Amino acid sequence: MSTLESIIWHVLGYAAMPVIILSGFIAVAACSVWLLSLGKDKNI
Fold first, then answer.
1. HEC string of the chain?
2. Measuring CA to CA, how many Å separate 32 from each of 8, 9, 16, 39?
3. Which UniProt keywords are present, listed alphabetically (predicted)?
4. Cα dist from 34 to 7, 16, 28, 41, whole Å
5. How far, CA to CA in Å, does 27 sit from each of 15, 37, 38, 40?
């Protein structure tokens, strides 16, 4: 494996975990907001 390939794989490896955690957090937040909006009183 060349040095460039090694650098690319290291960057991908270190970037994967924050992306997974943040995307999971965003998905849970979006679902929570949607569920909370279902129970909101629409006659304001």
1. CCHHHHHHHHHHHHHHHHHHHHHHHHHHHHHHHHHHHHCCCCCC
2. 36, 35, 24, 11
3. Membrane, Transmembrane, Transmembrane helix
4. 40, 27, 10, 14
5. 18, 15, 17, 20
State the Cα angle at 22 between 18 and 27, rounded to 5°.
150
pLDDT in tens, 1-44: 899 999 999 999 999 999 999 999 999 999 999 998 888 766 65
- 0.85 surpassed by pTM: no
